[in-house]
Amino acid sequence: MPSIGLISDTHGYLDPRVVEHFAGVDHILHAGDVGWPALLLELEALAPVTAVRGNTDTHPGWPDTAVVRRDGRCLLVHHIVRPGRLTPELARAVKREAADAVIFGHTHAPSREVVDGVWFINPGSAGQSRGGRPRSIARLSWEPGVAGFEVAFIELGW
Length: 158
Fold this sequence. Notes:
The chain contains 3 helices and 10 strands, in the order βαβαβββαβββββ. By secondary structure, the protein is of the alpha/beta class. The chain has a single domain (3-157), classed as Metallo-dependent phosphatases (Purple Acid Phosphatase, chain A, domain 2, 4-Layer Sandwich), CATH 3.60.21. The radius of gyration is 14 Å and the shape is globular.
């Protein structure tokens, strides 16, 4: 069963507990507002990393949108997403790539919902607590040949 670590909104801070929670994952998706590029190197010590640029990131090498295909699934990563109200550009990308899931951040609030058969998953903020919510990450997994995903949200505290 594939296992993907989901993280967003680190803003330059990598909680040491992320390392233990992401031990054994096959891939890590960072949905933007990374902060320091060195943070991605720390994550890459655990598993391959795909990261996108968030609204506070200035690194020119990070894309706005990334696509990861793994074990029969298509995961699209983008920072600012409003499930059910996608921008025309993002809606075209979801359709063109036949995305099974869209991983996003920005709101600092963990969430998951299914819209028109596509899973929209926000792991929350790993770097800063905002809005009275604890910091969080998530692990995504699925059974090959079985529809849907398993999403485990992991609280990191305040």
